[in-house]
Specification:
Blueprint lengths: L13 H13 L11 H30 L3 E5 L3 E4 L2 H8 L2 H10 L4 H6 L4 E3 L3 H15 L4 E6 L7 E4 L5 E4 L12 E12 L2 E4 L5 E4 L2 E13 L6 E11 L5 H5 L3 H13 L15 H23 L8 H4 E6 L6 H12 L4 H11 E4 L10 E3 H7 L1 H21 L4 H7 L2 E2 L5 E3 H7 L1 E6 L2 H9 L3 H7 L4 E3 L6 H7 L2 H11 L3 H4 L16 H26 L8 E6 L8 H16 L3 H4 L5 E6 L7 H18 L8 E6 L4 H7 L5 E4 L11 H7 L3 E5 L4 H8 L4 E4 L3 H13 L4 H4 L1 H11 L10 H8 L6 H21 L1 H13 L6 H13 L8
Parallel strand pairs: 1-4, 1-12, 4-11, 12-13, 13-17, 17-18, 19-20, 19-22, 20-21, 22-23, 23-24
Antiparallel strand pairs: 2-3, 5-6, 7-10, 8-9, 10-11, 14-16, 15-16
The structure holds ligand 26W.
The site of ligand 26W has 23 residues, from α6.
Length: 824
């Protein structure tokens, strides 16, 4: 039939692309083609690409429905997507055709790409990981949907005040229509809060009354790379169930009339900007329930369309919990099965525990979610009953296996005793899941031996695994570093549509590690990327940096455990050392540009002080003519996915220097190494596995190992040694800061005291070893430039393991039991 033979297909030819763009200008945007600006051109191009995506999306979803395979659902409160246009063009393979079409219309495609706002619906690692996994699931043709929230305001915009401190501004990313979303105003679910719960003898119940809020679906297509398969994220927006309260309205009380509708809409207004730190706000718990309830209702409706008996639910559905944020899905599925589907409790629990998987992303105690029982009782009374019932049965089983161990029972219970009591979400996630995993080998080991030790003893170790994180090589190599991507393609003689989906193939460049011509080309790519970054720095900060200097980058959320302060104190040490040299001696110094970027949670006082100190140290250093040629220090404001795409290809070294045992994995370590930057790092998270792959001689490791951290902390507490004795070099630097050399002497004391006093993150213990590692870096970079290039080439070549394709296939095969469903 005509409609089947490609009447509507993806735009691949220049004339049809140009025609569609003009058509969107005139119809969708209702504008004239002759006086179009960049923003208008972007909108029209985006709508043309959107059409392409929707065609593939429809075909894919129809195919999935017809084949009815087992599907995976990735529940994540964060999807840190960044920009979409460039990624969509590259994945569809239509970038060149679009470039030409856009040029014909008088625009530059790169300018349009740069005019797009980031979708910043996430804080950091966990949210960006979710975005990489979506790209990989579509590229590997795994039937997977993401479920999240459609925040009206994403991650706050970071401004730096004149005194150096961080200011936050809202991120109203939806003020211009978002061409990448498809509103599904007909796909809605009612979600209840508060009200009254009854429980009957069979542990079934009824929940009624309270407030109802409507969840409205917004879909975002996720194109796979070099495949027609296009997956989906469904993001929920909250809306009032009835426009407004008519009784109050008729009584003339207009404020009262809109009050409850406002509170419904507030639910999905804003992303909580906390990373690795739990803040027990009622609105956050409401977000979590709203999102899990809507997602489960949607999953259940799709399952029911297959007409399969309910006990086969786990044969068609796998649900992955991205940290504990969606753990309410466990009692919610119990509620649906027991209260609504009338499944007996025992059978329901079996279904639940075959359906869920739980990924833990942190062992930091302050990040583990616990919710006060009174809040829960008020907001989700039926779920509290269900949790009590799960807990009761579980503790009986524990008591049976380990009779008389009261302390073990207290540790493993879903309820933490105290005033008030708390619900431990990680324990609930473990109980309700088939498998639990950490995100790098060391982290998964720590999960098994520390926070979940009791559970490993109870369930056996086969329930607790590891899936080392990965990053998508499409965005984090091909898109952000096209010159390196092209060089790899021409060197290994494999089409990029092949190696970008099987990243182990880049090993092929190892053959050329000693080839001088290749070394030159490889070095030229890095140099060009550094110049691109230098141009950005010049245009945003007005600072000129020397692209021949070593670029040394640490970009990530600002957190004490990530130890930006260690890096900064190292920079001060470098500054004072250079300053102490004669002008003649200075000529031998390895030139460095040290770059920081990252956001601090708005309520995290020490992290904010860290930013302020970096900015003010930079002011002093950059204004000093004695050192200007050799050292520049910069804080780039408003770190984002798009800024990362500029920074990642431009590093000579990057720093991943968390106290050993604290960084679960890290993912930017993978991005920098994949782009030829070497690592300065601690023996932590995925740094360890990167070193295993690229060779330990190519990573600059320093610092104490995870196994000794606890002992050292014990010594800090019971046999404290002053900084002066442990590291005279460090003591001197702290005193310089205290003396006011970098301004505001008194302001930084609380930050300095975290080091002088308990020093929980072991800066004093690791400082000298850090300086030694940095000295190695300087020596090799300045004395053996060819050796450096070889290390860099070798590192890139050995990064195949860290593709998120590898990770997503491990989840598919070992956790979800799901197969590829390719759309032909
Ligand atoms: C409840 C507050 C809260 C918010 C966010 C607690 C914890 C989180 C996230 C789990 C923090 C996070 O992003 N963790 C990071 O996850 C990455 C992806 O697995 C890892 O690479 C990072 O090491 C880990 O810090």
């Amino acid at each position: 039939a005509v409609w089947k033979s490609g009447l509507r297909g993806v735009h691949t030819e220049v004339p049809s692309i140009a025609k569609s763009i003009v058509n969107h200008v005139q119809t969708t945007l209702a504008r004239q083609a002759y006086n179009l600006d960049n923003a208008g051109a972007y909108g029209a191009v985006a709508h043309t690409v959107r059409d392409d995506l929707i065609i593939n999306w429809n075909d894919t979803q129809m195919h999935y429905t017809r084949k009815a395979p087992k599907r995976a659902y990735y529940l994540s409160l964060e999807f840190l997507m960044g920009r979409t246009l460039d990624n969509a063009l590259l994945n569809l393979g239509t970038k060149d055709a679009y470039k030409e079409s856009v040029a014909k219309l008088g625009f530059n495609v790169e300018d349009l790409i740069d005019s797009e706002r980031d979708a910043a619906l996430g804080n950091g690692g966990l949210g960006r990981l979710a975005a990489c996994y979506l790209d990989s699931s579509a590229s590997q043709e795994i039937p997977l949907w993401g479920y999240g929230l459609r925040y009206e305001y994403g991650m706050f915009q970071q401004l730096i005040a004149t005194d150096g401190s961080q200011l936050e501004a809202p991120d109203p990313w939806l003020t211009h229509a978002n061409p990448w979303e498809i509103p599904r105003l007909d796909v809605t679910y009612d979600v209840r809060f508060y009200g009254h719960a009854e429980r009957f003898d069979d542990k079934n119940g009824i929940w009624s009354g309270g407030q109802e809020v409507v969840a409205v679906a917004y879909d975002v297509p996720i194109p796979g790379y070099a495949t027609k398969n296009t997956n989906n994220i469904r993001l929920w927006k909250s809306a009032p169930k009835r426009g407004f309260d008519l009784n109050s309205f008729n009584a003339g009380d207009y404020e009262r009339a809109v009050e409850s509708s406002n509170s419904a809409e507030a639910l999905t207004k804003v992303l909580y900007p906390n990373d690795n730190h739990m803040v027990g706000k009622e609105l956050r718990l409401k977000q979590q329930y709203f999102w899990t309830a809507a997602s489960l209702a949607d999953i259940m409706r799709r399952f029911k369309n297959t007409d399969k008996p309910i006990k086969e639910f786990p044969d068609l559905v796998a649900i992955q919990l991205n940290d504990t944020h969606p753990t309410l899905a466990i009692p919610e599925l119990m509620r649906i099965l027991v209260d609504e589907e009338e499944v007996p409790w025992k059978d329901a629990w079996e279904i639940v525990t075959k359906t869920f998987g739980f990924t833990n992303h942190t062992v930091l105690p302050e990040a583990l979610e616990r919710w006060p029982v009174p809040l829960f009782q008020h907001l989700l009374p039926r779920h509290l009953q269900i949790i009590y019932d799960i807990d009761f049965e579980f503790l009986q089983a524990v008591e049976k296996k380990f009779p008389g161990d009261r302390e073990k029972l207290a540790r493993m219970s879903l309820i933490q005793e105290g005033m008030p009591q708390y619900i431990r979400m990680a324990n609930l996630a473990v109980l309700g899941s088939k498998k639990v995993n950490g995100v790098a080998e060391l982290h998964s080991q720590l999960v098994r031996t520390t926070i979940l030790k009791d559970f490993v003893e109870f369930y056996g170790s086969s329930k607790f695994g590891n899936v080392t994180n990965g990053v998508t090589p499409r965005r984090w190599l091909d898109q952000c570093n096209p010159d390196l991507s092209n060089l790899i393609t021409e060197t290994i003689g494999v089409p990029k549509t092949t190696w970008l989906k099987d990243l182990y193939l880049i090993k092929g460049i190892l053959d050329k590690v000693d080839d001088e011509t290749f070394q030159k080309k490889f070095a030229a790519v890095k140099r060009k990327n550094k110049e691109r970054l230098a141009a950005y720095i010049h245009s945003t900060l007005g600072v000129t940096v020397d692209a021949s200097a070593m670029f040394d980058i640490q970009v990530k959320r600002i957190h004490e455990y990530k130890r930006q302060t260690l890096n900064l104190l190292g920079v001060i040490h470098r500054y004072l050392s250079i300053k102490a040299l004669t002008p003649e001696e200075r000529k031998k110094v390895n030139k460095r540009v040290v770059i920081f970027a990252g956001k601090a949670a708005p309520g995290y006082y020490i992290a904010k002080l860290t930013i302020r100190l970096i900015v003010n140290v930079a002011r002093v250093i950059n204004a000093d003519p004695d050192t200007a040629e050799y050292l520049t220090l910069l804080f780039l404001p408003d770190y984002s996915v798009s800024l990362a795409e500029l920074l990642v290809p431009a590093s000579d070294i990057s720093q991943h220097i968390s106290t050993a045992g604290t960084e679960a994995s890290g993912t930017s370590n993978m991005k920098f190494t994949l782009n030829g930057g070497l690592l300065v790092g601690t023996v932590d998270g995925a740094n360890i596995e990167i070193a295993e792959e690229v060779g330990e001689e190519n990573v600059f490791f320093f610092g104490h190992l995870a196994a000794t951290v606890e002992d050292i902390r014990y010594q800090h507490a019971y046999h404290p040694v002053p900084v002066e004795q442990k590291s005279p070099a460090l003591a001197r630097i702290l005193n310089e800061v205290s003396s006011g050399r970098f301004g505001d002497a008194h302001v930084y004391e609380p930050l300095l005291n975290t080091i002088r006093q308990s020093d929980y993150y072991l800066l004093t213990d690791d400082f000298d070893s850090y300086l030694e590692a940095q000295k190695m870096v300087d020596d090799i970079y300045s004395k053996d430039p060819i050796g450096w290039i070889k290390r860099s080439i070798t590192s890139v070549a050995c990064m195949g393991k860290f593709s998120s394709d590898r990770a997503i296939m491990e989840y598919a095969e070992e956790y979800w039991n799901i197969e590829r469903v390719k759309l032909e």
